[in-house]
Amino acid sequence: MKWFILSMTEENTPLNDNKVITLRRITRRNYREITRIEVKPKQRFFIASNAVSMADAYFYREAWMRAIYLGEIPIGFVMLGDNALKYKIIKHFKPFLYIWRFMIADKYQEKGYGKKAMQKDI
Questions:
Q1: Less crowded by CB within 10 Å, the N or C end of the chain?
Q2: CA–CA distance, 18 with 26 (Å, rounded to integer)
Q3: pTM of the predicted model as reported, rounded to 2 decimal places
Q4: Coil, helix or strand for 74?
Q5: Half-sphere exposure of 27 (CA within 13 A, CB side)
Q6: pLDDT by residue (tens digit) across 29-49?
Q7: What are phi and psi of 101, to 5 degrees?
């Protein structure tokens, strides 16, 4: 049994490493939660917001996006580019995937959750 000293602040609340990292579809039920996830303030200039990324995914058919969850808590966002979705009608085409966008929320960074998310099967 693990014992934790709990603080009243959310930032100091210990995280349960027994929770599983999952990739979930973004739907009308969870999209608002996903748009509120943010990186550290000094990182905001390096990545588009999740709302902009979701809009991009709407207009680019090669986009594949998922929310990253720790248990039932949304902690990040990933968007891949799948050129097979874009060029599936071209013969002699070599499909490939690439990371288009990837982010983990500020307070969940540096805990190994990003690495676990990248190791998930899609």
A1: N
A2: 24
A3: 0.79
A4: strand
A5: 4
A6: 999 999 999 999 999 999 999
A7: -140, 145
